[in-house]
Amino acid sequence: MKPFAESSEQNKEPILDILKIEFEGRLRVLEVGSGTGQHAVYFAEKLPRLHWTCSDLEENHAGIRMWLNEAGHDNIAGPLLLDAREDWPPLAFDAVFSANTFHIMSWAGVQGMVRNTGKILSPGSKFCLYGPFMYDGKHTAESNAHFDSCLKNHDPLSGVRDVSELRTLMQQQNMELARDYEMPVNNRILIWEKHDG
Ligand SMILES: C[S@@+](CC[C@H](N)C(=O)[O-])C[C@H]1O[C@@H](n2cnc3c(N)ncnc32)[C@H](O)[C@@H]1O
């Protein structure tokens, strides 16, 4: 049976509204941490000018393949095996998308993902990051603080990340926060743009 994430069903529509603006045109998009593959199938169907490539750890590949095979869209590829903690092979993409990954992976994973993303994106291209975030050490809602505690109880290396720490990391790869969208249930979409070095 195909894996199913209720959260992806809930957030796909509001995320699509932002992608329509930010990923306009004929772009090759790499998704990191595709999870079930639901987002990929939905966004590739609704934005047919995009070419969407899924990736994740090996453990999620079978589930992603089930979603991709059933949908049968010709503008989706993958899943690639990309672990944020490792160096990725040379890749050519115009944009990167990732949802609900930075609070799941360790800080070493976050650092690796930013480093790898910085390498594959050329100046002017975008990294679209969806999820809950903190600002200057503060959560944006009590429910996010509770979520953060639950994450850390389960895995002390995980946790909701702070935008100011991400800014520092991104700047090392010439990426700046271009836009910050408020999303339902205390989530955000952060658009990082790559600049010339
Ligand atoms: C909460 S799920 C989100 C899945 C999907 N993006 C969504 O929004 O439904 C977190 C995802 O991050 C992936 N992930 C965790 N650590 C990773 C790593 N080191 N490198 C790449 N992906 C990772 C997991 O395999 C999982 O698919």
Summarize it.
By secondary structure, the protein is an alpha/beta fold. 37% of the residues lie in helices and 24% in strands. It has helices at 6-22, 38-46, 61-71, 107-120, 142-154, 163-171, and strands at 28-31, 51-56, 76-81, 95-99, 126-131, 133-134, 161-162, 175-183, 187-194.
Structural account:
With 197 residues, this protein is α/β, with parallel strands linked by helices. The protein folds into two domains: 6-48 and 58-83, no CATH class; 101-197, Vaccinia Virus protein VP39 (Rossmann fold, 3-Layer(aba) Sandwich), CATH 3.40.50. 37% of the residues lie in helices and 24% in strands. The protein has six helices and nine strands. The chain has helices at 6-22, 38-46, 61-71, 107-120, 142-154, 163-171, and strands spanning 28-31, 51-56, 76-81, 95-99, 126-131, 133-134, 161-162, 175-183, 187-194. It has a seven-stranded mixed sheet, with helices on both faces. Helix 1 (6-22) packs parallel to helix 2 (38-46). The chain is globular. Residues 5, 7-8, 32-35, 39, 56-57, 60, 82-85, 99-101, 104-105, 109 line the site of S-adenosylmethionine (SAM).
What fraction strand? 15-25%
Fourth-tier CATH superfamily name of the largest domain: Vaccinia Virus protein VP39
- Overall 3D form: globular
Distance between the termini: 47 Å
What is the second-level CATH architecture of the largest domain?
Answer: 3-Layer(aba) Sandwich
Mean pLDDT over the residues: 97
Main CATH class of the largest domain: Alpha Beta
Q: Report the biggest beta sheet as strand number plus sense, adding barrel if it closes.
A: 7 strands, mixed
Radius of gyration from the CA trace?
A: 16 Å
Bound molecules: S-adenosylmethionine
Percentage of residues in helical conformation: 25-40%
For the secondary structure, the number of strands is 9
